[in-house]
Design goal:
Helix content: 25-40%
Order of helices and strands: HEHEHEHHEEEHEHEH
Largest sheet: 6 strands, parallel
Bound molecules: thiamine diphosphate
Number of strands: 8
Structural class: alpha/beta
Shape: globular
CATH superfamily: Thiamin diphosphate (ThDP)-binding fold, Pyr/PP domains
Length: about 180
C-alpha cells in the first residue's frame, strides 16, 4: 500500500478531529481525498507537524491527529520525547513510514533499518501500535487519555494529485475558525 491509500484508510474514519498534515504529498493527497476545514496543511516546515500538533493538543480539547512522515520524524526525534512527557490526552501521531523522503523523490531514509515503533515504545508510549493491528475507528470513538503513536508502514510512491489551491491565509483562517468554535 502506498501513502494515498493509507491516508484514504485514515480519512474514511474522520469526524470532527483536527488533522495536521505533513508538508508535501501527505498534505496534497489528503486535500484530494478529503478536504475539510479541520485539516491544517503544513506548507513549510519539515519536522514540525508533530510539534504543531502537540501545541494544538495541549491548548484545546478537540482530538488532534498528526499525519507525519518518517523523514520528518527522524528530523525532529526529540518531539516524540516531548509529546510523551507532555502527555496530551487528545493526541494521535500517525507515522506514515515509507522509509523515504517521498515528497522530494523517494530518497531512502534511515527507517529502512531503524524501527520508529520500537523508538516510540522505548520513549515510554504505552499506546504504540502498528496500524494493521488496530481498529482505527474504535480508537477514534474512545477517550484517548494518553498520547497514541501509530506506525503505518507503507511503500514509497506519490499519487498523481494536484497542488493545494488554497492560499496559506485561507488554510489558516478556516482552521482557526474551527478550532475556536
Ligand atoms: C527543514 C526542511 N528540510 C527539507 C525540506 C524539503 N522537503 C520537503 S518534504 C521532504 C521529504 C519529507 O519526507 P517524509 O517526512 O518522510 O514524508 P514523505 O514525503 O515521505 O511522506 C523534504 C526533504 C523542508 N521542507 N524542510
Amino acid at each position: 500500500m502506498e501513502r494515498y491509500d493509507a491516508i484514504k484508510e485514515i480519512a474514511k474514519n474522520l469526524t470532527d478531529e483536527l488533522v495536521i498534515a505533513n508538508i508535501g504529498f501527505p498534505s496534497r493527497e489528503l486535500y484530494e481525498i478529503k478536504d475539510r476545514a479541520e485539516n491544517f496543511y503544513m506548507l513549510g516546515s519539515m519536522g514540525l507537524a508533530s510539534s504543531i500538533g502537540l501545541g494544538l493538543g495541549l491548548s484545546q480539547d478537540k482530538k488532534v491527529i498528526v499525519l507525519d512522515g518518517d523523514g520528518s520524524i527522524l528530523m525532529n526525534l526529540g518531539s516524540l520525547v516531548t509529546i510523551f512527557n507532555q502527555n496530551p490526552s487528545n493526541f494521535i501521531l500517525i507515522a506514515l513510514d515509507n522509509s523515504a523522503y517521498g515528497s522530494t523523490g523517494n530518497q531512502e531514509t534511515y527507517c529502512k533499518n531503524t524501527d520508529l515503533l520500537k523508538i516510540a515504545k522505548s520513549i515510554g508510549f504505552k499506546k504504540a501500535f502498528n496500524f494493521k493491528d488496530i481498529d482505527f475507528k474504535e480508537i477514534l470513538s474512545e477517550d484517548i487519555e494518553e498520547p497514541i503513536f501509530i506506525h503505518f508502514k507503507i511503500n514509497p510512491g506519490n499519487a498523481d494529485v494536484g497542488i493545494i489551491d488554497l492560499t496559506p491565509d485561507k488554510i489558516k483562517n478556516r482552521f482557526k475558525e474551527i478550532v475556536n468554535k
